[in-house]
Amino acid sequence: MLKVKILETEEEKKELYATRYKIFVEQEKSVPAENYKDGLLKDHSDDHAYQIGCYEGSLLVGFMTLIVKKDDELLEVEQTHNLIPQENEKYAEVMRLVVLETSFTKTISMKGKVMNLLFETVKDIIISENITHLLLQSREKSKKMYEKIGFKQIGDFKLYREKSYQCPMKLDVMKVSEKVVNISEFI
Predict the structure, then answer these.
(1) Where are the domains of the chain?
(2) What digits encode the pLDDT tens for the residues 140-170?
(3) 164 vs 21: CA distance, rounded Å
(4) What distance in Å separates the CA atoms of residue 165 and residue 65, rounded to the nearest whole number?
(5) How far is CA 117 from CA 53, 64, 112, 171, 177, in A?
(6) Where is the N-acyl amino acid synthase FeeM catalytic core domain (predicted)?
(7) Among candidates 93, 95, 107, 120, which has minimal Cα distance to 183?
(8) Which helix (H) or strand (E) holds 76?
(9) How far apart are the first and last CA of the chain?
(10) In 3D, which of 84, 74, 78 has the Cα closest to residue 135?
């Protein structure tokens, strides 16, 4: 049975960071290895981010990171794409959203179920943190999926960390609250 939780222990987070490293540094080569010599893809923003994991038993099958914007700090998507924060909007950035290839996630419907569970947890954070908009950076291959959820492209594709081209996307959570709650039908 699939369960989603906000990761709290260092052991859980270390597993997540090691998995992210394998995917983004070793497999996709979309993040430079020289910045992560310990085999853990962990950034400064991870210290105050929500790490959300989806498990089938003890097996990690999907995850995402949600970084709630703090007062005057710029989120990575804002820095990369020179975005200007809008007054009266509270942002969080979705990063490293992944559904892993496992025996439990072979079908599109199971991948959708994992995504749905991850976003259900995000919904709870959105409410508790009074977030009005989600931001993310998308590669071309993922852009259509995010658009189906309700994200809109708000800038041009730019080189991210000198490795991959990504565009900024934004979701007004008040306009699409139902889609954030049940996205599996859109995938």
Answers:
(1) 2-186
(2) 988 998 998 889 999 999 887 777 789 999 9
(3) 16
(4) 20
(5) 10, 11, 9, 18, 14
(6) 17-163
(7) 120
(8) helix 76-81
(9) 21
(10) 78
